[in-house]
Amino acid sequence: MTRSGTGSGIERWAGDDPHDARRALGATGLLRAFNDAGVLTAADVHVARRTADVAGEDDESVRLAVALAVRAVRQGSVCVDLGAVAGDGAAGSTAADDAPPLPWPAAGGWLDRVAASPLARRSVVRADLGLLYLDRYWREERQVHEDLAARLAAPAPAVDDALLRDSAARLFPGDAYAEQRAAATAVARHLTTVLTGGPGRGKTTTVAGVLALLAEQAEHAGRRLRIALAAPTGKAAARLQEAVASEIGPLPRDRSLDRPISGQATDLAGGRFTDLDRRRLAGVQASTLHRLLGWRPGSSTRFRHDRSNRLPHDVVVVDETSMVSLTLMARLLEAVRPDARLVLVGDPDQLASVEAGAVLADLVAGLGQRDDGVVAALVTDHRSESAGITRLAAAVQAGDPDAVLGALTGADGVVELVHPDDAAATAALQDELARHALDVRRRALAGDADGAVDLAEQHRLLCAHRDGPWGAAHWNRLVERRLGEASGTYLGAGGTEWYAGRPVLVTANDYSLGLHNGDTGVVVADGETLRAHLGSGRSFAVSRLGDVETLHAMTVHKSQGSQADVVTVLLPDESSPLLTRELFYTAVTRARRRVRVVGTPEAVRAAVGRRARRATGLARRLGG
Ligand SMILES: Nc1ncnc2c1ncn2[C@@H]1O[C@H](COP(=O)(O)OP(=O)(O)OP(=O)(O)O)[C@@H](O)[C@H]1O
């Protein structure tokens, strides 16, 4: 009852080192074979063995199925499709063509055996939709579906039609704003909306207008609108806050909200928003989703706000929804009041969340066929100065490698491809990186915090991997070596860890300090001491910072939710399982003005051709 010969496409780690920590000691049978082959890690095997032993399950194929479900979650999927996993190379075919065949159980009846096993009877695993889930993820996916279905079936929120028409025409005037006007009207008319679009498609502009429009509706009904703006990372929340504030314009000098507003509202910024809009929206703050939901010490999956203690807001806008995991979406949906508007904004073509799930892509796939405007897509590019980046991103999205290579070799100076074997070009790149780091350091040594932060934020070096010759760690060391040579000291790990000009990335939330995972900044000299400046006037003694990384280079995954004027993307070679269309798209769309890709044409083709698919059932549940 085994299949063999299939499955050479499944992603494997090199299982030939007997001391590799991923080796499961004492494993036998199928678990042993799949661990030896580098498909399962020790942790996958351990969980499968423990749960099977407790439940008294001896069937090796069932044990293997559980281990594959654990593996699936580890790799970002919510479930595993046992019928397809054997041939699944979607996440990257790293097995050599001559890798020995794996003893796969026959697909027919495999899931049924798991469904009839004591493990399923004890609800350790769930078979549903022809997929196998670990219980927690099955419950979360069902909850997300049920909460969304209830919201979609609930009566539409009350709106004053004439006022809505007027304010939509005022806030989104003429043909130039027609797409956003339609999207904003859809948001006003629905309890739940998914607002999608790539960079520069006018999502933030739409959000700002929607808030003004809803605030006007609320005031018309004699209420003040309670607004929550949130994003998965601190960086993304800060960007959202800044973008919405700059879109709306500065508050009029008299900030009194209670003062009766007499006469016609003036339009100070000369834009679409009036003083009245600005007053109605005064004080709106963006926060991380964790902060909005009410982080509780010791738990990353339970929050102060939940089904029994809902958020007070009338409208909740979440930006960068592609980064929201299934678990976080489940917590959000149970906390939002059933009658509050929920607007999920994001770019479904970007990499999905670090944790399991692909919620935004699932929402678009599952709800996109509806013709009622629940999914509103913005497609018009409003950033003309970066047309080259838009062309490149569109070609990546379309999965057209020739068009991608064409866009990369265009002569517009906006987009550039550097071959890694081009010694002169890579030396020039290293010189440029060193020069940039030195300029940041000079400002930091002079105590110019704003100047150092601004300059550091202008360029990002993005890598697919953390480790290896094209990994972020290597390039961080390389730039630090060049900085050290120029400074006559040894900088970085093993030398002076904290130095003026060290760009830093915060990698964990610290609520007591107000630090958020994803915050970035620069270490700046302050007399004899060093302080890390994180922008917006926030600074900390470096001794208080725990979880930080050096940011001369960063991984594409960690760059999600942020942008820089100039981005350099280092592609690994084509065999890397991380090299996917979503990773490449996310990397190039971090650039506002210029993007340089360092990689072979083969790596570019591999990236464009490979999808980072995740197994989930949500799209199917939503699509009926
Ligand atoms: N209809 C429009 N006409 C002209 N300019 C526009 C229009 N909509 C937005 N813009 C401008 O285009 C730029 C990009 O818009 P916006 O920031 O709203 O896009 P976005 O989708 O949020 O982008 P990103 O995800 O990159 O932040 C902004 O400078 C904005 O002022």
From TrEMBL:
Entry's Gene Ontology cellular component terms: exodeoxyribonuclease V complex
CDD domains: DEXSc_RecD-like, SF1_C_RecD
Pfam families xref list: AAA_19 (PF13245), RecD_N (PF21185), UvrD_C_2 (PF13538)
GO biological process, one term: double-strand break repair via homologous recombination
Domain of life: Bacteria
Chain ranges of the RecBCD enzyme subunit RecD N-terminal domain: 37-120
Catalytic activities: ATP + H2O = ADP + phosphate + H(+)
UvrD-like helicase C-terminal domain: residues covered: 551-598
Keywords: ATP-binding, DNA damage, DNA repair, DNA-binding, Exonuclease, Helicase, Hydrolase, Isomerase, Nuclease, Nucleotide-binding
EC number of this enzyme: 5.6.2.3
Entry's Gene Ontology molecular function annotations: 5'-3' DNA helicase activity; ATP binding; DNA binding; exodeoxyribonuclease V activity; single-stranded DNA helicase activity
Purpose of the protein: A helicase/nuclease that prepares dsDNA breaks (DSB) for recombinational DNA repair. Binds to DSBs and unwinds DNA via a highly rapid and processive ATP-dependent bidirectional helicase activity. Unwinds dsDNA until it encounters a Chi (crossover hotspot instigator) sequence from the 3' direction. Cuts ssDNA a few nucleotides 3' to the Chi site. The properties and activities of the enzyme are changed at Chi. The Chi-altered holoenzyme produces a long 3'-ssDNA overhang and facilitates RecA-binding to the ssDNA for homologous DNA recombination and repair.
Extra information: In the RecBCD complex, RecB has a slow 3'-5' helicase, an exonuclease activity and loads RecA onto ssDNA, RecD has a fast 5'-3' helicase activity, while RecC stimulates the ATPase and processivity of the RecB helicase and contributes to recognition of the Chi site.
Family (UniProt): Belongs to the RecD family.
NCBIfam families: recD (TIGR01447)
Subunit structure comment from the entry: Heterotrimer of RecB, RecC and RecD. All subunits contribute to DNA-binding.
HAMAP family registered for this protein in UniProt: RecD
Name of the protein in question: RecBCD enzyme subunit RecD
